[in-house]
Amino acid sequence: xxxxxxxxxxxxxxxxxxxxxTGCGSTVVQGHATSMMxxxxxVGGLPVTDGHSGLRPNPPEPKRTADNSDxxxxxxxxxxxxxxxxxxxxxxxSTLPKRFEPVTxxxxxxxxxxxxxxxxxxxxxxxxxxxxxxxxxMDEIAWxxxxxxxxxxxxxxxxxxxxILAHEYGHEIQYKTGILTDDDPIFVAEQQADCFAxxxxxxxxxxxxxxxxxxxxxxxNHVLAGLIYIRDxxxxxxxxxxxGVTNAHGSALDRVSAxxxxxxxxxxxxxxxxxxxxKKRQGDLPKFLEPDGYGDTQAVDTEIDADTLKNLMDVLSDxxxxxxxxxxxxxxxxxxDAKLSPPxxxxxxxxxxxxxxxxxxKLAQAKDEDNQQVxxxxxxxAISVFTSRYALAVQHDKGLSIDTPVxxxxxxxxxxxxxxxxxxxxxxxxLSPGDADEAISGLLTNGLAASDVNGTLLPAGFTRILxxxxxxxxxxxxxxxxxx
Length: 484
Hints:
Blueprint: E1 3-6, H1 17-20, E2 42-43, E3 46-47, E4 54-55, H2 73-91, E5 105-109, E6 118-119, E7 122-123, E8 130-135, E9 138-144, H3 148-156, H4 158-177, H5 186-205, E10 212-213, H6 218-229, H7 234-242, H8 252-264, H9 267-271, H10 275-282, H11 306-320, E11 327-329, E12 344-347, E13 352-355, H12 357-364, H13 369-372, H14 379-397, H15 405-422, H16 435-445, H17 461-472, H18 476-482
Parallel strand pairs: 5-9, 11-13
Antiparallel strand pairs: 1-8, 2-3, 4-10, 6-7, 8-9, 12-13
InterPro entries: Uncharacterised_pept_Zn_put
Region (Disordered): 42-72
Signal peptide: 1-22
């Protein structure tokens, strides 16, 4: 049996993360969490850094060659990435069940060319992708130099391209070492490959690569933005289900969390990913194409208005049970003991959540990722931010500090707890399929759901998402224990 595993990338103009991460320049005060994994100043044990991400100056010439190459800069970049990935795995194959074996064939093609060569035994015309193919007499990594490579590099940076190839090489490792077979679900295969890519990219971020550099701040944010963009969109999943296709790759939460497991962990943890592990990691958040209590799989966007905010206050009071619930204000006002963090702010002085309703509506406005050149946004982008300000009120009610990086981590965690509870059917406001991805995207683009009372962001999107995910999978008490 032969098979092909692909890092699917739509033929679209993709939003530049640089234009999205408008809050990343916020000043961050110093502080420390209780473990290295959850330290707000570190990512996977590495310090949070900004700076150059991409090809180093004067890298070594590529060692390998590609069939059908045009000899241009694009293929040279890909070959350097392949060299780097192979160097990493050859140096670290003691962690694998079998010795590392480089892929046999490398193939470059141009998806715009009707007369382009076959890739993976099939026509490559209009196949905008990068793929690993295996089977009898086939062991090949192929890439589209016409569209996918230049688009990935332009909109997400060179390291997003390297991440694509690291993902494909993850598939090669799965099959060459026997970690996975064709009988295993594609859903598992894809997330394992995301995890293997995370293992390799941490090595790059740690400064061990001769060819590439990756900052753990903005550089890693770009890589995560790429993972979010190539997730299984709800509309794509629905169309696939209508055709009887079940080749799901995973939601944004699935894919980012799998990558984080690898970046902060090791190969053993990647190999341990299976359907049971994935389901545990997903928690109780609504899944793609799982019918809700009414048999509906459509995304449900909630109108953000005064009634919605009142309902949300009631829901969050039930979720967190503060002894002194905060009040709600939609009137513009100052706060004497905290900076405002529009469109939603918490003022400790009078225990009030202050909402700029037009601004919150704008944050909740659903956007067409394909046509508007943005990452995912919708009602839960706004609701998750509102939830985070309520979570600050809950922390203040308990006498905890709310103006430190640890408080920002705790806030992200408690927001995740609240979101998981809001996924339970039958409430006044219930999350629907796709809502979790809106929260994950928001943590990367605006970051407010994991910020302190002054709206000061955690410096790395990776850490914001990690804090949120720890809450989705945990409890309120665990958030307080992890981030005292």
